[in-house]
Amino acid sequence: MEITATKGQIIKGKPVADQISETLIKEVNELVKEGINPKLAILRVGANGSDLAYERGALKRCESTGIQTQVVELPEDVTQEEYVKTLKGLNEDTNINGILCFRPLPKQLDEEAIKYIIAPEKDVDSFSPINSAKVMEGDKTGFPPCTPTAVVEILKHYNVALSGSKVAVLGRSMVVGKPAAMLLLNENATVTICHSRTKDLAKVTSEADVLVAAVGRAKMVKEDFVKEGAVVIDVGINVDEEGKLCGDVDTDAVLDKVSMITPVPAGVGSVTTSILAKHVVKACKLQNNK
Ligand SMILES: NC(=O)C1=CN([C@@H]2O[C@H](COP(=O)(O)OP(=O)(O)OC[C@H]3O[C@@H](n4cnc5c(N)ncnc54)[C@H](OP(=O)(O)O)[C@@H]3O)[C@@H](O)[C@H]2O)C=CC1
Ligand SMILES: Nc1nc(=O)c2c([nH]1)NC[C@@H]1CN(c3ccc(C(=O)N[C@@H](CCC(=O)O)C(=O)O)cc3)C=[N+]21
């Protein structure tokens, strides 16, 4: 009898992002007809590669959905006072509905103080503790961070069962890992959070039906980290030894074992930008009592 190996399916972000964009385009059109123009401000310090990658994607997504944008670039050595003054200016600017502050901020800036400055109603990527708390509480009136939201949207789009499933999240940052775990818990998954101190890491992650990798270590997740038939969401955006973009998962090594896996690029990143655009429209509507 011939045995044919069933390879894992590469699940792309584009169909998920396109579906979100389609609805957004209609919503933006309705707002524009009423003289309301949704607008996103991006606050960037210096010009690091991962910020610029996000910015390129975000600007393209906003343009294609009819959302206006403004990029504010501050020098690498910007002072706390200058950053705070700029952020407060964006808070007060009534033409701006959403603000994205790239993180992490350079060392001279006090992120713990700045996160209290951003207006929660314009905070489209969950920098403010008000929005972080809403994620904890499962309160849908806030803005959960875009990347973890994209992870959940991809899983739902590809009909991956979450309720009652074992999910492992690799990473516990406030931008990805920790909120991803909370959003998945809100979907009734049984969530295990792993990090740099986790013992027997591969054993823990290989028990999961769904593995979300957000560690920032190129191709760290190998074959022994995954369960047979698992669904893998690769959030990592890293550069490999050849200078090419790659994820946290060694895709070639796990492909024969998993049932589905997201690619990098063209995976989570592309959905992240569509969630960002969705949050700008939501912010705009709330600010205009719509
Ligand atoms: N696709 C997208 O839209 C986005 C992608 N990213 C990418 O996602 C990745 C993660 O980003 P981010 O969360 O900001 O990164 P951080 O560096 O802030 O966090 C990394 C996390 O991984 C854990 N970790 C690091 N090394 C190991 C290890 N060897 N074993 C186990 N755990 C480890 C850390 O643990 P500990 O807490 O113990 O230190 C930490 O919790 C990056 O590649 C980033 O570029 C980020 C944002 C958006
Ligand atoms: N507050 C904050 N939130 C973030 O979510 C955040 C951040 N700061 N700082 C920087 C990192 C990095 N990041 C990316 C998101 C999407 C793409 C993306 O769209 N990538 C495309 C390719 C884009 C291109 O290279 O042109 C893809 O994966 O297909 C890239 C990188 C979010 N981050």
Structural class computed from helices and strand pairing: alpha/beta
pLDDT averaged over residues: 96
> What is the annotated CATH architecture of the largest domain?
3-Layer(aba) Sandwich
Under CATH, the homologous superfamily of the largest domain reads NAD(P)-binding Rossmann-like Domain
Percentage of helical residues?
25-40%
Strand content: 15-25%
Compounds present?
A: NADPH dihydro-nicotinamide-adenine-dinucleotide phosphate, 5,10-Methenyltetrahydrofolate
Shape: globular
Main sheet makeup:
6 strands, parallel
Tally of distinct domains: 2
Q: DSSP helix count?
A: 10
Q: In sequence order, what are the helices and strands, one letter per element? A: EHEHEHEHHHEHEHEEEEHEH
User: What is the CATH T-level topology of the largest domain?
Assistant: Rossmann fold
Physical arrangement of strands within the biggest beta sheet: 1-11-8-7-5-6
Gyration radius (Cα, Å) is 19 Å
Unreliable parts: none
Distance between the termini: 63 Å
Number of strands: 11
**Which CATH class of the largest domain is shown?**
Alpha Beta
